């Protein structure tokens, strides 16, 4: 059955510890101006299909049919509802804000703005504001309490800088993403 992992498979979410590469100038595959390769990497992070949430699990999610019409998965897949994970939505939002921050990259080359940035400017602004609010609310909801030490550095503008390379205990995103891929009900 293609059901939500936290509803049916509580052992799916595993944790790992990482020193996250968060310094200002640290290179990662996702940082920097748009390239065809980088855009593909970003799309692969968040652009996944929907999976099935059985109707009898709506209560666990604090949802009901009252006043709502939810999309069903195709009958050949099941009888439940189509859903996506919030983490993928949040990554879509980060991706969209990242693309917006580089909009001149496309415009300077005479290219159309990517996907949801192209079209009605009011809708684009509303979408961007929605993404900012989603990320703000999620950051406050998860409230990462990892300490960031202050490092003395005579070369830094104020003689000190934040040591952003801090150890984090993280959910294994790649396992979660793979679960979504393996349980896709609507591509």
Automatic annotation (TrEMBL):
Pathway: Mycotoxin biosynthesis. InterPro entries: UstYa-like (IPR021765). It holds the Pfam family UstYa. Signal peptide: none annotated. GO terms for biological process: mycotoxin biosynthetic process. Belongs to the ustYa family. This is Cyclochlorotine biosynthesis protein O. It comes from Aspergillus udagawae.
């Amino acid at each position: 059955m293609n059901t939500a992992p936290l509803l049916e498979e509580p052992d799916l979410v595993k944790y790992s510890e990482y020193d996250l590469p968060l310094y200002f100038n640290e290179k990662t595959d996702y940082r920097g101006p748009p390239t065809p390769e980088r855009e593909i990497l970003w799309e692969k992070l968040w652009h996944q299909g929907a999976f099935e949430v059985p109707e009898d699990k709506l209560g666990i999610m604090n949802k009901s049919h009252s006043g709502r019409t939810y999309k069903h998965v195709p009958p050949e897949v099941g009888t439940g509802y189509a859903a996506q994970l919030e983490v993928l939505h949040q990554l879509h939002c980060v991706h969209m804000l990242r693309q917006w921050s580089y909009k001149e990259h496309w415009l300077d080359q005479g290219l159309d703005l990517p996907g949801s940035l192209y079209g009605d400017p009011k809708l684009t602004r509303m979408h961007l504001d929605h993404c900012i609010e989603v990320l703000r609310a999620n950051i406050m909801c998860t409230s990462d309490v990892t300490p960031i030490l202050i490092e003395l550095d005579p070369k830094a503008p104020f003689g000190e800088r934040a040591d952003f390379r801090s150890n984090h205990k993280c959910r294994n995103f790649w396992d979660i993403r793979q679960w979504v891929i393996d349980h896709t009900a609507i591509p």
